[in-house]
Design brief:
77 residues; mainly alpha; 3 helices
Length: 77
């Protein structure tokens, strides 16, 4: 199991993807589907993080939430 350090942050979806890759052999026939599914999950998670940030900070602009996400999680991965 991968342990996060203070230098690098991961979202829950990124952590899950890394751990699944590490512990399970993935059939190449399913690799494309899994890659697309994880990319969609990451996009959904990004929207959720940005919405939570906007709500908690009372910031109503998408650009500020986008900036927060990119600074915290390193942008689109």
């Amino acid at each position: 199991m991968q342990i996060l350090n203070n230098m690098s942050k991961q979202t829950a979806v990124e952590w899950l993807q890394d751990n699944l890759k590490e512990f399970f052999q993935i059939d190449f026939a399913h690799l494309d589907y899994m890659t697309r599914a994880f990319e969609q999950a990451k996009a959904m998670e990004k929207e959720q993080i940005m919405e939570a940030y906007k709500h908690n900070s009372m910031i109503r602009t998408v650009s500020k939430a986008e900036q927060y996400y990119n600074e915290t999680y390193g942008g689109d991965k």
